[in-house]
Specification:
It is built from 15 helices and 13 strands. By secondary structure, it is of the alpha/beta class.
């Protein structure tokens, strides 16, 4: 039985955290024993993890680089005879990598999964990013676009492979929400998203697109923005200033995301950068038409004109034009339904993601 230790910052809300929870909860326990290190407390989603307390190390990392926690991580690896360390995000890679290098006898193999953080890191220091990556024995990217980025920007080609994220499918019989409860009209074309309200998601561009749409179609198209984040107050104020509060509704963080996505007519993602966003996979599995920006792995989920529309990032006009196109040819909405469900089942299921990780662990 192989012993796998996942290393994360914490389990606050986000796609990365949901992927790790899925891996921990669904990996074959006959073949693997699972351990976990959290660098900075547990996080909001920790209670969703099925793991024994004796198999966890919960740290409280101080601001800056906290050298004091490295011996504790090292000792946790040694005492539990860890075979494979799997780090997610650069912080966990650095801490687990330094702890890993300080083990003088049998070292565990160190895997690092790149979700999308490299885009930000490389802007600050390409040299430093290259050093980080050398700590890992193997790099897993969540999209082929990220793999290409490693090759073209960092000249890292050896020991890099892609494993797509996967999620549980939105059940076919999921019941949509009552539109009135969301504050939108029953007969409008409902465009929605469900994301962390951060700079990455480009919601300011979506609000500008809503302004363009309103000037042409009035309240016949309305928008629901689910999620919370540092920019929520600023984005709501922007919507009010533009007098869009009658067609743009901010509804906060939701636990009924599957029902919410079923309520949308179109799912929209206006991100400035991405790895392989789980929100698009949820929309794909629900059969929803998707409008997404041409960043990261979005184009590996959405093929322009085949199962959705791809637009350039930071382009409110292109977002609006895509909405106009789907509004004018509503037959496309039904066509995309079957195409998207079929693509999800073939490539992006949770079962596929788990099996691909298990094969990798067993081969190393």
């Amino acid at each position: 039985m192989k012993r796998i230790c996942f290393v994360v910052n914490n389990f606050d809300v986000g796609g990365l955290e949901k992927v790790v929870i899925s891996l921990i909860n669904n990996i074959n326990k006959n073949n693997f024993k699972v351990y976990l290190v959290c660098l900075s407390d547990k996080g909001k989603l920790f209670d969703e993890i099925n793991i024994h307390a004796d198999c966890t190390l919960i740290l409280h990392k101080r601001n800056g680089f906290d050298f004091n926690i490295i011996p504790r991580i090292r000792n946790f690896f040694i005492s539990n005879k860890i075979d494979i360390v799997h780090a997610h995000n650069f912080g966990p890679l650095i801490y687990s990598g330094v702890a890993h290098k300080s083990i003088f006898r049998k070292k565990p193999i160190l895997f690092y999964t790149e979700h999308n953080q490299v885009y930000r890191q490389i802007l600050s220091s390409k040299f430093r990013t290259k050093l980080y990556i050398k700590l890992a024995d193997k790099v897993i990217t969540v999209s082929n676009k990220l793999k290409e980025f490693y090759s073209e920007e960092l000249n890292v080609t050896n020991n890099v492979l892609t494993i797509y994220n996967g999620i549980n499918k939105v059940p076919h019989d999921t019941i949509p929400l009552n539109r009135g409860d969301l504050g939108v009209d029953i007969d409008c074309l409902l465009v929605g998203t469900a994301v962390v309200l951060s700079k990455q998601k480009g919601i300011n561009n979506l609000i500008d697109a809503a302004d363009i749409v309103k000037k042409k179609l009035g309240n016949r198209v309305q928008f629901v923005i689910a999620g919370h984040g540092d920019l929520r107050d600023q984005l709501e104020e922007m919507s009010i200033t533009k007098k869009l509060d009658d067609i743009v509704k901010f509804i906060g963080y939701r636990q009924d995301v599957h029902n919410l996505i079923k309520t949308y007519d179109i799912y929209i993602l206006s991100s400035l950068w991405e790895g392989l966003p789980l929100s698009l996979l949820e929309a794909l599995s629900a059969g929803k038409p998707i409008i997404a920006t041409n960043v990261g792995g979005n184009t590996e989920i959405v093929e322009d004109g085949i199962n959705g529309i791809i637009v350039e990032p930071a382009s409110p006009q292109q977002l609006a034009d895509a909405i106009f196109e789907l509004y004018a040819i509503k037959e496309k909405l039904n066509h995309y339904n079957d195409v998207n469900i079929s693509k999800f089942d073939e490539i992006f299921s949770l079962k596929s993601m788990i099996e691909n990780h298990e094969k990798l662990y067993l081969l190393n």
